[in-house]
Fold these 2 entries.
Entry 1:
Amino acid sequence: MESYVRIFDTTLRDGEQSPGATMTSAEKLELARALARLGVDVIEAGFPAASPDDLEAVRRIAVEVGNAADGGRAPIICGLARASQNDIEKAWQAVRYAARPRIHTFLATSPIHMEYKLKMSPEEVVSRVKDMVALATSLCQDVEFSPEDAGRSDPEFLYRVLEEAIKSGATTLNIPDTVGYTIPEEFNKLISGIIQNTPGIDKCIVSVHCHNDLGLATANTLAGIAAGARQAEVTINGIGERAGNTSLEEVVMALETRKPIFGLHTGIDTTQIVRLSKMVSNYTGIVVQPNKAIVGANAFAHEAGIHQDGMLKHQQTYEIMRPEMVGASHTKLVLGKHSGRNALKNRMQDLGYNLSVEELDKLFARFKLLADKKKTITDADLEALVSDELYQPREIFTLDGLQVACGTMGMPTATVRLRGPDGELHVKAAVGTGPVDAVYKAIDLVIDAPAILTEFSIHAITEGIDALGEVTVRIAGSDGEHVLHAMQEVESPRSYGGYGADTDIIVASAKAYLSALNKLLVASGKFDEVVSEPVAA
Ligand code: KIV
Ligand code: ZN
């Protein structure tokens, strides 16, 4: 059996389905580019039938990321479709511009889903799978089929459904534990059983897709791989429906760190993992828990004296991976006040960013401002500046000035000056329970967008009193709206994440709030995002 495990990233599809993880189309495109650089084999770019915006976002990714400019190999670009003609045709409309397009179609096979959700008999399910996989293969050579809720399906029935999918031309068979119900031994047996009992499966790639409801997604995925699956469906930081999906970083680093046990490898450049993790957290507003494996802030921190003592004597006493293997090392004293534009350009290239002249100009201006306030500028600082300066949503309102009075002697008061969409300035002042509250109230007086602040988190990027502060917020639009998730249409308020970084944490807080509000304004349709026409492949 081959030793290569394909990494299928679904951060932009299953990940984006996590409550509040909505990303703008510009962010999706940027993330897809970063995933391609990371070396994922397949990018599930979205669910094109969900809305015209989703279709357009997948199409742009197919055009711009699915065709390698330098003659290299671009990742497969995949679109999700329910087993219906409309969904499959929409998925094809979106992915066909990629050099290697894939349609991923699914239909539930568990008794509970067939009876209550689909209201279809098992025979009807088999016949729908046959017809819809055949339709997908008539459009696209590369078709993946998933029997949704396979973890709770009858294995004998699965063998039958999968056999029909293979006969209709499916090339990848993905086995989802949709509700995160199975345990590793059971999932291993399920995959082995499928491989042994499904006629024609030797011509296909078997894939695994696990959810984390019992905290077992990574363990189940590894158990599936041990049984012979050669594609793992994952998301960065493990974001996804409910408790999330299997996290990319955990599976990849388990295979890497325990190579002698698995004897398997992936195409992932592990040194980019932390960068991707930060990017996803900044774009979605979903903060990574500090003790999260591989990418949490404490993943390589040693606090206990006995551990620190051991580490000083030999690094491997308490470290099974080197932080630099995942890009978590904080190189000190990278650049400073006297570093020039070229030094910044070279450092950014080393970090994997190929910036345009305008991007470099913008970043250099921010870098100089920061260097005036902070003696040493680390890689982590540079990453924060990139997120804050370059990877922001379209700016409808920008922060032009901010003044705060606070402390024990009076009422926290903030005055903000915002530049609006036509370049006009708006000045408002407000009193709050603290300086951030006062700033947010003043911003609300300028921008009349019905939103509730649901999350606010702040942390220092590096140690030291002059550190950059990083703020992540999430806001929820107060109007409920119908959102079509992969599984069903639901009424839910959309929420938006925002990110800001500055040496002044009140300024960082204002920027984060504005960035989330700008996303909400763009989504409201009042201010359409500027989307350039894709170039035909
Ligand atoms: O969890 C699931 O079943 C899915 C399918 C669409 C593969 O996400
Ligand atoms: Zn899923």
Note: Residues 14, 80, 106, 146, 148, 174, 176, 178, 209, 211, 486 surround 3-methyl-2-oxobutanoic acid (ligand 1) (CB under 6 Å).
Entry 2:
Amino acid sequence: MKLLVVEDEALLRHHLQTRLSESGHVVEAVANAEEALYQAQQYNHDLAVVDLGLPGMGGLELIRQLRAEGKTFPILILTARGSWEDKVQGLATGADDYVVKPFQFEELEARLSALLRRSSGFTQPTITAGPLVLDINRKQASLDEQPLALTAFEYRILEYLMRHHQQVVAKDRLMEQLYPDDEERDPNVIEVLVGRLRRKLEGDVGFKPIDTVRGLGYLFTERCR
Ligand code: CA
């Protein structure tokens, strides 16, 4: 998933970027609200982590503006302030959850996973479509109860398409799931990866859930639950 992290403390920002990238996300980590607004206008994020105490525009105002601009992705507040008023105000402004600093990374990650799952409309930590099951915590796929050997990039594409099942997903969006920078993006890479993914899903069972919608992108045709 593509995450936007807004944290002015350099060490924590670096730590969040590293750990969340290791967990398989593409992370855009910025130090202030102004840069965050710019990133949110340029790219499609799946979730944002917002520190409340920021220099310049504060985190609450940032959340207000993101919501005013129609951004609906889940927002998790990171705050050193432990008072209940701050949490209530944050949630009232449009945030979906909060974690109080100092925090355990495992707790943050569990909350992020839950927010991502719910925002895609799934209540279980697995996504199932016919013979295909994704375990989104372990980042593993299985087909007909046999583990499916996918590369990290193949897995990310599959998870994204399944989360957006029965919707056309543009190639640009898939590229955003793989690379943080525009320069590295090459639509041919997506075609190659989707081609490999299709062959693996077809396997012995003949499962063909990914359609190409010419000029638009890809469509995961099976209903996922
Ligand atoms: Ca701060």
Note: The domain at 2-119 is CATH 3.40.50.2300 (Rossmann fold).
